[in-house]
Amino acid sequence: MIHKNAMDLTNSIKKYRQDMDQLMKIKDISHPDVIKLLSTIRKENYVVKKV
Predict the structure, then answer these.
(1) CA-CA distance, 29 to 11, in Å (whole number)?
(2) What total number of domains does the chain contain?
(3) 15 is in which domain, residue-wise?
(4) What's the average model confidence in pLDDT over 25-46?
């Protein structure tokens, strides 16, 4: 079960990173939407490392 949760989080992080790449084509890295997405990615990375 833990392995499945870690894999789900890893897949979610990959999706967020793809979204971030698309968003950064449109907006600057300092844009609030980009910062919010980066924060989400960091939080999920932290959770994966704890699992």
Answers:
(1) 23
(2) 1
(3) 2-50
(4) 90
